[in-house]
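Many introductory courses stop at the sequence. We go one step further.
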Amino acid sequence: MNKTGNPLDLREWLKRIDQIGELDHCLGAHPNLEIGAISQLNVKKENHKALLFDDIVGYPKGYRVLTCSTGSKKRLASILRLPSPNTHQDLIESLRDKPAEWLSKAKDFTPTPVSHGPILENVMQGDAVDLNQFPAVLWNKDDGGKYIGTGCSVVSQDLESGWVNVGTYRVMLQSKNKVGLMIIPGKHAHIQHTKYMDAKKPFPVVIILGADPLNYLISGIEVPFDVSEFNYIGAILGQPVEVIQGDVTNLPFPSAAEIVLEGWVYPGDQAPEGPFGEFLGYYTSGSSLASVVTVEKLYYRNNPIILGSPPSKPPNDYSYSKSVMRSALLFNSIVAAGVPNVQSVWAHEIGGSRMFNVISIKQKYAGHARQAGHILSQCGVGAYMSRYSIVVDEDIDPSNLSEVMWAVATRSDPVNDIDFIQRGVGSQSDPMSVAQTLKAPFASKAIIDACRPFEYLSTFPKVVDVSEDLEKHVKKKWPNLL
């Protein structure tokens, strides 16, 4: 049985990040609130590391939970198989052209079925299935239950075309062989699920609870309809994903996955699920009925690892990866729309990578800043939930909130430099949609021009600051001090 050399082996990735000092271990944490609290406090530290929990109270030694996997530029670059960056902007630049390249190549990387793999080390079926052996975490005190799937991937298939989709949806433990699956309406799996329910047929599902974070990362982005995320992952890796075809559903899953649940959603089988925190850091919905997956077969490795990704007030477990990937997409969209001299873009974690976005430009003509701001706010990638769009000059780092707000405070006039858009694209996930009790998810938008006035560029007061050359000189001369 091949236990090494698989490019989607989580344990191989953990070795790589451990070698570069990006992994910490935590022993003896309690699954009720402690794992969640430690993870939330960890991700708010500067230069925090991924956390691997073991000796979890109430569970066998070796049954582990990994959190904070995608939360640094070095870890994220490692996941995406990109060069290790020095800055956020380095990572965005190396990522910018990759999604289009990966998508164009995806058709050439159909998954390769294999008959072996670490995931087959332990197999349970029927009455022997027992999900209670795995650490199910109560992440936050107001959650509606224990969640076994947060950094997970859900594999499903279209009833008509056979298209295999992989998406990220939360999974709540219901009993030893049942889990609640909350599939958001409109998402690809929900479209597939509806077809089966309309045909009064059971919906086949595979849930991957642990794998290389690349699997989770790609299942959580907008891969186009009819393209399988497994093909897309293969394009990133440069080789097809090795998959096992499930005995029960015939759905594929990575041969090096950690824990895999295989089963069915039977028509009409629902149970209360939630509440659960959302990506903006609020509980915006209560308990509701969700589909129930009856697990017919369970696969898991020795000493399995669950990939956890708990939501909380940003920054949270997964907000950094969303910021980087959305920043690259925004950058490309704005350039494609014809905005010149774009220096950098950053979708801030504090806005869930959607609600507070900043672009820096080198002004070329009158109206350039407003053009950039409105396109940032309303382009296809940016329109959804884009509450604040801020434009700054090229000397401002969009990812540095202190610099951005300094520019807002000193280079904008509230009366002249803030534009508003009413009845823009919003979301029911926005806590303000609850506060405003809107019948439809509209949202107003603000575009803030925090650039130096174009007509006064040559006479605007000079900035008091250390020059770039002098900064390099003193840092080199006093490295221990600076």
